[in-house]
Amino acid sequence: MDDVLQNIMDHAVAVAREAGQVVREALCDEKQRDVMTKSSTVDLVTQTDQRVEHLIIQSVKKKFPTHRFIGEESVAAGEACVLTDDPTWIIDPIDGTTNFVHSFPFVAVSIGFSVDKKIQFGVVYSCLEDKMFTARRVKEHSVTENHLMLFSSISDVRRSIIATEFGSNRETETVEKIFSSLRNILNIPVHGVRGAGTAAVNMCLVASGCVEAYYEVGVHVWDVAAGSVIVEEAGGVLMDVEGGPVDLMSRRIVAANNGTVAHIVKEIDAFSPTRDDAPPTQ
Ligand SMILES: O=P(O)(O)OC[C@@]1(O)O[C@H](CO)[C@@H](O)[C@@H]1O
Ligand SMILES: [Mg+2]
Ligand SMILES: [Mg+2]
After folding, report:
1. Can you name the CATH fold of 2-136?
2. N or C: where does the chain have the smaller number of CB atoms within 10 Å of the terminal CB?
3. ipTM > 0.85, yes or no
4. Where is Mg(2+) bound in this sequence (predicted)?
């Protein structure tokens, strides 16, 4: 299985790079950045998101015809978001669509691959920085092209930088919760709070030791599937925002180094968005 998995992972890296090239070219063409909206007026999608997801899925289907997919834009178009034991590609064609639309320079192609409901490898291509992050669920871990993982050993949370995002839900109660967590964390006080505008890149920042932790309520499985392996293989931990094991379908995540995770979890004002795998409401 090892060689088989490596073969699949090599394909994921190649197709992520190809997708990244499409994204970079689209950035120079206003038409390809025309905005449509999904769950709210600030949940953006472009024809490039759809095109890139199609490109990835078609390329994988040619090589691995029995594999299944959970793709952000396919789910938006009505496909089920259900993880089975079958080999499944979990795809976010553009993580950071808002960044893409505004030319804010953090945009990633994120591909996680799951078997038996466990993510086996993750590939995050931060395509405007041209950084490829990969990790496989074995002892080895690697970040290609010299982007070495330099995991943070800081254990004093007051010396940390914490990453988070504001998401695309603007309901008053949700915004209140987001600010309540943010206030608690700023008041620790931490050195700073940052957000790249993409969950996948935020998780790679944890794996690289640039930030000590990343947390968010409202993410989707395609935002974090790839990053989850990258963080764990770098030596980090994943947790639910109220402690306990993370559930990638729950839309809640903390990814952190060992020293700060417990401190961050204490400060989060948790809530529970509708799960990614919830049956559709009629
Ligand atoms: O919609 P996209 O661009 O794929 O996802 C980007 C994003 O908004 O999704 C997460 C919340 O859902 C955030 O962490 C992240 O910034
Ligand atoms: Mg995303
Ligand atoms: Mg996306």
Report:
1. Fructose-1,6-Bisphosphatase; Chain A, domain 1 (3.30.540)
2. C
3. yes
4. 72, 92, 94-95, 223
